[in-house]
Structures are given as structure tokens and as C-alpha cells.
Design goal:
Layout: H1 2-17, E1 38-46, E2 52-55, E3 64-68, E4 73-79, E5 87-92, E6 105-109
Antiparallel strand pairs: 1-4, 2-3, 4-5, 5-6
Length: about 110
């Protein structure tokens, strides 16, 4: 495993030195609040269902960071549109049942928040 990692770093370094570019994976908050249409004062919610996907952006086409379960804590900052059929952006308040760290920012479908 260490050999593969070192080889990858050598290739990456060579590409960058030769003027190439490398596409890096998006961060947990790849879209961030830029997709928000409605801002709100910070409000804390609990997840109201089990199996809600926590994503890098507002929609199913974005990568899932992990899964939220009933009772997980989420601080809401904003959403994409009216509460029906919208996505909420915020951060995890306390390490989740599945191990998503406190402070991780991302998106969850609004109807899954209580």
C-alpha cells in the first residue's frame, strides 16, 4: 500500500511540475451555501428518519458523505427554496450514529429534519 501511495505522489508531482492540472475530489461542502435561496438564523434540528443521506450538495447527484439517523443533531443555516421539496445546508453538531464528525458541513433533504 505504501508503494502505491508513493508512486501516486511521484506521478502527481510530475504532472504538476510539467504544467498539468489535477482534478481533486470536492470537499464535504463542495457547494456550500452558494446554492441557498433562503437564509435563516442558525436553528438546531434533529433528524426525523433513519437512513437520510448527508451530501456534498443539494440533490441526489451529489456525493453522499454519510448517512444520518433519527436523533442525529443538525444545525441548519439555509435551504434551496421553500421547505417542501428543498435541501437544507448546515453542519453536524455532535458525532453521528454512523461516525460523521461534529462540524462537518453538508446537505440533507429538508423533510428529514424535525
Amino acid at each position: 500500500m505504501k508503494i502505491k501511495r508513493k508512486a501516486s505522489m511521484v506521478v502527481l508531482s510530475a504532472v504538476l511540475m510539467l504544467g498539468g492540472s489535477v482534478a481533486l475530489a470536492p470537499t464535504a461542502s463542495a457547494v456550500g451555501s452558494s446554492a441557498c435561496q433562503f437564509n435563516s438564523p442558525d436553528v438546531n434540528f434533529k433528524v426525523s428518519t433513519s437512513g437520510a443521506r448527508f451530501r456534498t450538495g443539494p440533490g441526489k447527484r451529489y456525493r453522499a458523505i454519510g448517512t444520518l439517523y433519527r436523533g442525529d443533531s443538525f444545525r441548519y443555516f439555509c435551504r434551496t427554496r421553500g421547505f417542501e421539496n428543498s435541501w437544507s445546508y448546515g453542519k453536524i453538531l455532535k458525532r453521528t450514529t454512523t461516525g460523521i464528525h461534529a462540524g462537518t458541513r453538508g446537505w440533507v433533504y429538508s423533510k428529514y429534519l424535525d
